[in-house]
Amino acid sequence: MTKAIRIFKTGGPEVMEYVDVEVGDPGPGEVRLRHAAVGLNFIDVYFRTGLYPQPLPGGLGQEGAGTIEAVGAGVTGFAVGDRVAYAGRGGNGAYAEERLISADVLVKLPDSISFDTAAAMMLQGMTVQYLLRQTTPLKSGDTILFHAAAGGIGLIASQWAKALGVNMIGTVSTEEKAALAKAAGCAHVINYKTENFVERVKEITGGKGVPVVYDSIGKDTFTGSLDCLSPRGMMVSFGNASGPVPPFGMSELASRGSLYLTRPSLGAYTATRDALDATAGDLFAMVQSKKLSIDINQRYALKDVAQAHADLEGRKTTGSTILIP
Fold first, then answer.
1. Which of 111, 122, 189, 226 is deepest in the core (most CB within 10 A)?
2. Hey, what CATH class is 140-263 in?
3. Where are the domains of the chain?
4. E strand or H helix at 249, and its extent?
5. In this model, does residue 241 exceed pLDDT 90?
């Protein structure tokens, strides 16, 4: 038996239970993975609350790093003892000491990258990779707006944007978070608790607006984000931290200058082995070259995951958070 987090109903942090589970042997195409560290991400909250439905009882967690302990029939390219990591495509179940997982979603971890770093960066780092490198064709000198700039994704995006020569305007909720975002590479930081972010973006850009907005907040910032875009700009809505975006008329895009809107997901951008390896490889190269530093600002024991979720939802966390089985 091994320990894992299971939910038998949706709700608050208290619905997560630390229980004994039987993992068993890997089936065809699978491996049994022992986690050294597990990533905590806001998408886990969406599944816990039921915003994103899943069959119950079920597990939580979509990101982890560890060592392969057993290999099922037909698995090629991986062996017992390999250091591996994954994010986004393995399905829920990372909140566990051990799990079975398809070998197709794994990537080998370079020796220079620790398990803790990998668990803290795979989902967030590959998300930033596709946002900045694939979703929109950013070029040096561009100015963008990125919400939640002091979160795990935001701090990685701040560094990556700086490395690309892109001027990132980041929003935060406290002066302490503003300092973190600025130190990470944000060209401009807006405290949306004390400033109107739409007005500030217009001031910074001389009234032009920005060609791209990256919004993981959702309901509270969506309309304002549209107002920050220049004509024919791209709205990238990739999260719902404040709740889902309410229905709106397509005329809202037309009236603001023929805007574009996309709702991307990591799974779609890493759906093939080649795409997964390329996305992860770009992330690994950025970390190995020291252009990216992964800030693990919170660590919790797996059994204390309820407190971790409460802190995450209460916006008490910064940078990346990991769970230690």
1. 122
2. alpha beta
3. 2-121+273-324, 140-263
4. none
5. no
